[in-house]
Amino acid sequence: MKRIAQVPIIVMAALGTAAFAGTIHGKVSGVSGESVVYVEAVAGKTFPAPAQHITIDQKGLMFVPHITAVQQGTTIDFLNSDSVAHNVFWPSISGNKKLGHNLGTWPQGQKQSFKFDNPGTIPLLCNVHPEMSGYVIVSPTPYFAETDKSGAFKIDNVPDGAYTVTAWHEGAKSKSNPVKVAGDTTADFALTK
Question: Domains in the chain, start-ordered, CATH in brackets?
Answer without folding.
Answer: 21-45+143-193 (2.60.40.1120), 48-140 (2.60.40.420)
